[in-house]
Write a structure and sequence with these properties.
This is rhamnogalacturonan endolyase. The protein is mainly beta. The protein has 3 domains: 290 residues, Beta-galactosidase, Chain A, domain 5 (Distorted Sandwich), CATH 2.70.98.10; 101 residues, Immunoglobulins (Immunoglobulin-like, Sandwich); 163 residues, Galactose-binding domain-like (Jelly Rolls), CATH 2.60.120.260. Helix content is 7%, strand content 43%. It has a 9-stranded antiparallel sheet, covered by helices on one side. Strands 1-2-3-4-5 form a 5-stranded antiparallel sheet, with no helix packed on it. Strands 31, 33, 35, 38 and 40 form a 5-stranded antiparallel sheet that branches. Strand 14 and strand 15 form a beta hairpin. The N and C termini lie far apart (75 Å). 45% of the residues are buried. The structure holds 2-acetamido-2-deoxy-beta-D-glucopyranose (9 copies). One 2-acetamido-2-deoxy-beta-D-glucopyranose binds next to strand 28.
Length: 566
Amino acid sequence: MGVIKFLGLAALAAAAPLEQRAKKPKSFLKEVGNSTWIIGNEIWNVTQNRQYADQLWYKGKDRVGDAVGHYVSYNGAASDLNWTSAAIVDSDTDWINIKFTAREGDFHWVIYDDLPGAYQYFVNHNLPTLGEFRTLWRLDNASFPRGRTTIKDGVLPALEEYLGATNVQDETWQKADGTFLTKYDWSAFIREQDFYGVYGDEVGSWYMNPGKDYYNGDHLKQELMVHRESKTGDAVQLNMIHGTHYQAVSRDAFADGKVWGPWLWYLNDGSKDNAAQRAKKEEAAWPYKWFEDKAYQSRGKMQGKLVLSDGRPAAGAAVFLGDNNNASISTLDQGQGFYYTTYADKDGKFSIHDIRTGTYGLYAWGNGGSISDVTTNFTQNNIVIADNKNTNLKDLTWKVTDASKRIFQIGAFDRKTDGFKLSGPTPYEHGRITKCPGNLTYTVPTSKSEDWCFGQSALGTWRVNFPVENATTSAAKLTVSLAGFSQGSSADILLNGVQVGNITSASLLNSQDTYRGATRAGEWRLLEFPVTKEQLKVGGNVLDVRVTRTTVVRGWLWDSLVLEWV
Ligand SMILES: *[C@@H]1O[C@H](CO)[C@@H](O)[C@H](O)[C@H]1NC(C)=O
Ligand SMILES: *[C@@H]1O[C@H](CO)[C@@H](O)[C@H](O)[C@H]1NC(C)=O
Ligand SMILES: *[C@@H]1O[C@H](CO)[C@@H](O)[C@H](O)[C@H]1NC(C)=O
Ligand SMILES: *[C@@H]1O[C@H](CO)[C@@H](O)[C@H](O)[C@H]1NC(C)=O
Ligand SMILES: *[C@@H]1O[C@H](CO)[C@@H](O)[C@H](O)[C@H]1NC(C)=O
Ligand SMILES: *[C@@H]1O[C@H](CO)[C@@H](O)[C@H](O)[C@H]1NC(C)=O
Ligand SMILES: *[C@@H]1O[C@H](CO)[C@@H](O)[C@H](O)[C@H]1NC(C)=O
Ligand SMILES: *[C@@H]1O[C@H](CO)[C@@H](O)[C@H](O)[C@H]1NC(C)=O
Ligand SMILES: *[C@@H]1O[C@H](CO)[C@@H](O)[C@H](O)[C@H]1NC(C)=O
């Protein structure tokens, strides 16, 4: 058998009929009725119906039970895909590739004989323009009582807790003791996931998505990962391959043939250590050599060094490779193609490997540390990635403003609330924003980031007292950088009593971040307001951010507030 393993299929076929020589895979697809199929191997099997796979046999029990099972859907439950046919489209001695066909595209399960789980991928043919596209498991809650992401690990709240509580908004309940229950607690930064899923003492069901280049969005892209279904009690394991949970708009049209995945859906005995080991193995094996798809296999690499125009290295900068020439949407909202993220090192150097061939835009912005003062970002279009080639961009100059022109800055300019009061320890908590004060005073230069709160919503005024030391001969600019914004609260910004700007729903789209309990980041917004030289005076000045309208848990997450001469 060892010898046969190393022969190509063509060689085998020439020698004798395949069935006589080659070992046949034990993994199977069985059509058992009108639009009902059973797929699996000797370790597990799944019963797939027209929409839902409603049985998962593993370790002697059906692990779907009364739950909904497995499905693929877009834009909410009205659009769960309907499978019209299934076939084995490829196989070898120890695996099969099963394709389920729907009007919108094909969902594949690649099943190896010895694998508890399957590799899965989706090939688009006719998906509509959409924001949300996902595959998921809704599983038996007795088998899978717990959830695990890189941020949170614990027992999913029981359905019973929801039943006794009052719904206050979108999937959020208040309990009698005043605390909140919300599925959004189980969100995470999707590109930082090693593995995640639901598990118990007997079994675990995990997603491992190495590569992650088919996800929409940048480093700050967040998604709901697992949760308790609040009507049925199902244990839910989501695979949000295109999502909008913490965004304003992210709607994309996709090319026929766009592939999401393959990722691994992995079953085990519930051990997180075992899952962690498997995830490492998958990451090392990515991009998967077994996946016969020319575009998937065609990849190159890229490197470069970002240097700020004042000579400093762009230490730790966030580097994003995304849509070419698409300044109309934010890096978080890009999602029609393939996306790569990394961070520059302390010298500003960065590299990304295994990038799909194509032409990209390169974007960079500050991620705190020694470049926390940098308010500008870097963009270079027309970056060509060729198969098996290294694109060396060498030194790239990133234009920054003159640091000597800074009058004051509150908070690191990094698109996150990091450093502000209450910004941690976790990045999600419904209602934490209500713990930020209505009124506060920040005095330059003695106050620190911790004296400013991460989010603003309550009526009142956040006042900045700051000195201007020399005579003002030029105009200035006020930069308001928000890490997130949910419509419902508004503020006027006044300089020495005169309005110079505002934060309002009239000029900012709603995003689903602040009100869903995001406390670290959401959809980044940048507001810039001109200040005339007459509006500043030598000596003490006062800048007020005065909340004029409030809606509970709605408002904005602060990134940074900067005043500088121009
Ligand atoms: C199969 O089921 C569908 C509905 O689920 C029905 O419309 C169709 O007539 C059935 N076909 C056969 C051959 O039973
Ligand atoms: C699926 O697994 C169950 C439990 O091990 C087993 O009884 C059943 O025969 C399997 N189905 C198929 C089609 O192999
Ligand atoms: C699948 O079929 C059901 C009807 O059984 C329908 O309600 C649903 O919209 C269909 N899904 C899609 C994506 O068209
Ligand atoms: C599990 O789901 C059932 C409904 O199928 C529900 O009655 C039960 O409360 C759920 N258990 C938990 C812990 O939520
Ligand atoms: C930019 O991205 C949006 C969203 O995917 C898309 O609608 C638009 O066509 C893109 N523009 C360009 C120039 O690629
Ligand atoms: C870069 O900064 C400018 C403002 O200086 C902003 O309009 C733009 O959206 C930013 N670009 C990216 C890709 O973040
Ligand atoms: C903020 O200060 C104003 C004026 O002093 C006061 O009326 C208001 O109640 C304060 N708001 C809060 C939330 O403390
Ligand atoms: C003095 O003000 C000018 C603008 O009028 C500014 O460019 C300069 O950096 C300031 N110098 C100091 C030392 O603050
Ligand atoms: C509010 O700010 C927007 C820019 O963000 C500006 O267009 C508008 O004029 C401002 N309105 C007021 C009343 O200052």
